[in-house]
Design brief:
heterodimer, A: 254 residues, alpha/beta, Rossmann fold, 2 domains, 6-stranded mixed β-sheet, 10 strands, B: mainly alpha, ABC transporter involved in vitamin B12 uptake, BtuC, two-stranded antiparallel ribbon, 2 strands, globular
Amino acid sequence: MTTTETRTPVLELRHINLHYGSVEALHDVSFSAYGGEVIGLVGDNGAGKSSLIKTVSGVNSADSGEIFVDGQLRHWRSPHDSMVAGIETLYQDSGLAPDLSIGANIFLGRERRRGGLLGRLGFLDQRAMEREALEQLERVGITIPQTQRTVSELSGGQRQAVAIGRAIAWAKHVIILDEPTNHLGARQSAEVLKVITSARAHGLCVLFISHTLPHVLEVTDRIIVLRLGRVVRDAPTSQFTVESLLAAITGLSE
Amino acid sequence: MATSTQTEDVTEPAARASWLRRTLTNQQVVLFVVLAALIIFFGTRNSLFFQTGEFSNLLTDFSGLVLIALAETYVIVAGGIDLAVGSTAAVSGVVAAGWIQPLVNAKVNEALVLVVGALACAAVGALAGGFSALLITVFDLVPFVATLVTYSVGAGLALVISRGAPVGYNPGAIYWSASGIGMVTWLVAIILVISIVLGVVLHLTAYGRYTFAIGSNEFAARAAGIAVRRHLVSIYVMSGVLAGLTGMFFYIRSGSGAATTGVSNSANLIAIAAVVIGGASLTGGIGRWAGTMLGAAVLTIVSDGLIFINVPPTWIQVVVGALIAVAALLQTFRRRSRRLS
C-alpha cells in the first residue's frame, strides 16, 4: 500500500474471500478507500471486478473477510443494507426506471410525502421532488431543463448522468460505477467523467470500474488491478501508463 | 461546471416534436375526440340516444366494466396481466348470492343485506387474487399462466356451486339498483367514487409510484428498496377485490348470482382492451387512469350504440377488435415519432 492516510477510510475491505462452488472468485482482497478519492478498478474479464463490487454492494456475501464503512464493521443481508449505510451502486444500464420522470427516478424508493394527513395517506409531494431533483442534478453539474420528462426520452449519456447524479445525491460515503461509459460516444463519456470529478469534489469516494483504460487514467487518483481474483497492483494513477496498466492487467509485467 | 453542451444535448429528442404533434399523438386527447364523435354520431342516427334513460343505461354498463378495467390498469402498469377478473366476478357473485339468500328470506334490511353481500364478494375476490399472487410470487409462474389458472378454476367453481342456474332471488336489490338522483343511480355513484379513488391512488401516491416503477424496471425498483413482491401481491389481491365488487354489481342488477357473469362476455378481455385503448403498454410502466376511463367509455358507447342503430350484436366484437388495432397502432406511431426526432 502506498497510502499514508491517517483519516478513517470510508470503505475498507479486509481479507475478502469468495467462492462460486469450487471456483475462487476473490482471494484475500484487501484495500482501503477514502473520501474525495476516485479509485479505478480494472482487470480482465473474470478477474473478479464484478464479484468484488457485488460483495461491496451486498448482492453477494463473502465467504470470509470483513467490510468496514466509515470505520464500522458491516454485514449486508441485501443491497438495500449497503444503500442505507451510504453506498450507492450503479449497475450497467439498469439503475433507472425509463417510464418514470427524471425527478421520480432521483427519488425512487425515497419519495417525499406531502405534509399532514395527506402525507400519511401516501400522497406524494411531486412538485418538491421535481424541484429538489433539479437542484441535486445542478449541484453535480448536470443541467436538465425539465425533470418531468421521462428517462426514456433522454440520450444514453444523459441517462447515465442522471443515474450518477442520483447516486451522488444519496451516497453518504461511496458510489460504485460499473462501466458507466460503456456504449457512450466520446462527448457523452466526457460528460460522465465530469460528473465523476464532481462527485470527488463533494467528498465522496468513487469506485470506477471500466475497460476503457484512457478513461480510467484520466479520471482516477488511484488504480487497483485485479487478476484471477487477487489484487495485483494498488498504486497512484500517476505511476501508470496505458501500456503498463495493460501489462499489469494481463500479467505480462511480472 | 460548464453545462452548455449538456443543455443542448438535452433538447434532443422530444422537445423538438412540435406541440401539435404531441397533442395529436396524446392517447387521451385522441380518445376524448373519438368519444365526442361517437356520441354525436349515434345521437344523429337515432335521437332517442340523448334521452336520459339511454344515458343512464350507458352509465350502468360503463360501471360494470370500469372497476375491472382499472384493476387491470394497475396490474398492466406493474408489468403483469390478470385474466381472472371475469370469472372472479362470477364466482364471487354466485358465492355471495348463496350466503346472503337466508338474510333476504328473513326480510333483513335490504341495505344491510347488500353491504354483507359486497363484503362477501370482496372476500371471495381477495382469495382469488391472492391465489394468483401466490402462483406468481412464490411459484414464479408468469402472470399470464397464473391468472389463466385462477380464471379457469373460478369459472369452474362458479358452475359447480351454481349448478348452472341463477343463485338466489332478491327483488329488493333490483329495485334498489334503479334508485338514485336523476340519471345517476346510487349504484353507479358508488362505483364512480371508487373509480376516482383508484385514479388518485395511481397517480398521486407512493403506492401508485411504486406500481409504475416495478412495471418500468423491476430491478431498479428492487435496488431502490421497494418491496416488489409484497407490492405485486397487493395489486393482484386488489384486482380480485375489484372483480368481486363487479360480481356484486351484477348481482344487484339481476337480483341473483350467475356463473355466466363476466365469463360469457369475456369481461377480462374487454377490460384489457379498455386499458390498451387507453394507451397503456402491455410491457408495463406506462398507463393512465384517464386513458382507461376513456377507453372503457368508448367501448361502452360503441357496444351500446351499435345496438341502438340496429347493427347486429354479433358485429360488435369485430368493431372492438378494430378499435384495439387503431389504439395499438397509434401507440407504435407515437413511440416511433419520439425515437426518430
